[in-house]
Amino acid sequence: MKNFITVGTRLAVAGLFAVAAAGAAQAAECAFRPNAPDQHTVVRGDTLWDISGKFLEHPWCWPQVWGMNRADIANPHWIYPGQIVYFDRRTGRLSLNRPGSGEDSEGLPTTRLSPQLRTEGMGADAIAAIPAGAIEAFLTSPLIVDGDALDKAPRIAAQEDGHVFLGKGDRVYVRGDLQGGTSFQVFRPGTPLRDPDSGKVIAYEAVYLGSVALQKAARPGVDVHTFTVSSSAQEIGVGDRLVAAPPTPLRNYVPHPPARPVKARVLGIYSGVTFAGQNQVISVNRGALDGLDVGAVLSLYHFGETIADPGGSKGVMGFGKAMLRLPDEQIGTLFIFRVFKNVSYGLIMQTTQPVQTGDVAASPE
Asked: Which residues is 144 bridged to in the sheet?
């Protein structure tokens, strides 16, 4: 295993701890660390990645070792500070029960915790699945749209008092079909995202500007709806588009390999910088249609370049130099937290080198 730099802000502890025997292939993939402790007491501020990394060579593969199926991954359970994770060296298993305590007839203790679907339903002491603020701004703010989707969305047609740009509390007038919605986010068409493989535009990344709330719907003889700006991340202006605010996203993410093999390329780095490091957000050119879902973990690689072979023979038809295709070099780990049809957003969990557009993100080996 590569000695990756550990990300400072990681996934929080969330989980169903269930014990299951690991097969030979699974054991090879999800090996325990030689210096794994006998136990770990969960404390406030712990993360799932931290705790898994204390016991396992690959922190992301804990659902396999702890016996989680796809349904468990989609609807995990929570754990709380004060609980103890035990490592039974005799059986090679993890549990929330002390080894040899005989909680079941086969000596294979299993602890299941009450499910909590959303953070607002959790107890005050429960550890959140995602650290507050780690990716909060990216859960709903970056928006991927296909083609002319924003062109058909309701638009800000005018504002009160002739202001050029708008801020919190300002009144705006919107034209378009609200389809019954009352709460909207405001976006501006942004940069087209081009597939590094094909060169084709596969989606557009819209810029999040803020949110607005409906005050009065258009009545007969009036062409616009009246809104008030609820929040403003950037200046909002005439012509910007409204998209219905999505429901509160789930926070109980569980890291797991994709359901089927995925090989993606890095589309872009959020905020428009050239290179990205740990705890930064990037987009990749694969999405739900390719088998990615929230919580999928991918390995990051520098894309292997093709270079001239300095000691090789001539190329095709005797012209030029023979070429060499270099291997992709693994540099880190990516956690997928938001998925669209053809595009996904991920948080760089670990990295040894800066990530750049065109790098590879593939199913972990």
From this structure: 205
DSSP state of 296: B
- For 335, the token pair is 């956690």
Write phi, then psi, for 51 (nearest 5 degrees).
-65, -45
Quickly count: other Cβ atoms within 10 Å of residue 191's Cβ.
13
Cα–Cα distance for residue pair 143/124, rounded to 1 Å: 31
Report the candidate in 357, 181, 327 with the shortest Cα–Cα distance to residue 266: 357
- Rounded to an integer, what distance in angstroms lies between the CA atom of residue 135 and that of residue 93? 32
Q: What is the pLDDT along the chain (365 residues), one digit of tens a residue?
A: 333 333 332 333 223 222 222 333 343 467 899 999 999 998 887 777 778 888 888 877 777 766 666 666 666 666 778 888 888 888 777 777 788 776 543 333 344 433 333 333 444 565 554 455 557 666 666 678 766 677 889 999 988 776 666 778 889 999 999 999 999 989 888 778 888 888 888 888 888 888 999 999 999 999 999 999 998 888 888 899 998 877 665 556 677 888 899 999 999 887 667 899 888 888 999 999 999 998 889 999 987 777 777 766 665 555 566 778 777 788 999 988 888 888 999 888 888 999 999 999 999 87
Phi-psi region of 105 (alpha: psi -120 to 50; beta: other; left: phi over 0): alpha
Element (H, E) at 74: helix 70-74
Beta strands in 256-354 (DSSP E): 263-269, 275-276, 281-284, 297-302, 306-308, 323-325, 329-339, 344-351
Q: Structural domains in the chain?
A: 5-121 (no CATH), 141-244 (no CATH), 263-362 (2.40.10)
